[in-house]
Design goal:
Layout: E1 2-3, E2 6-7, H1 17-26, E3 34-40, H2 42-51, E4 55-62, H3 63-71, E5 75-82, H4 95-100, H5 109-123
Parallel strand pairs: 3-4, 4-5
Antiparallel strand pairs: 1-2
Length: 124
């Protein structure tokens, strides 16, 4: 994540965890920041709306994420546009993406997706 020309957050964590961690750590300080991510699906897009991210740069962007970003006037650029984001095994839809389908209000996204993350961590 970059804000005002400075890197404010960087992580090597997989999937959505890095963005959830950044929101937890920085909260309102993320307003106006730009996010560079390898894979951006609807769940990440909702979190970007919640965190008031200004721009998203993705290697892979889902069509559902693109819609969320467009609806909320967040600048976005991508290399590959895909139908959906798959789970780690590439056998089905990512669990965060499944849950994101049910989220209507982006303001609820952090709480809902963080709960799923915690639940998945406890299962390991």
């Amino acid at each position: 994540m970059v804000k005002d020309g400075e890197i404010i957050f960087e992580t090597g964590s997989h999937r959505i965890s890095g963005l959830l961690d950044a929101i937890e750590e920085f909260g309102n300080e993320l307003h106006g920041a730009s996010l560079a991510d390898r894979v951006t699906g609807r769940a990440v897009a909702l979190l970007c709306v919640h965190a008031k991210i200004r721009a998203v740069y993705a290697m892979v962007l889902s069509k559902k994420a693109k819609s969320v970003l467009e609806e909320n006037r967040i600048y976005h650029d991508w290399e590959n546009l895909v139908e959906s984001i798959l789970d780690v095994d590439k056998k089905g839809i990512c669990p965060f993406e499944k849950l994101a389908e049910e989220i209507i209000n982006p303001e609820d996204s952090y709480r809902i997706l963080k709960t799923l993350q915690n639940s998945l961590k406890q299962q390991k």
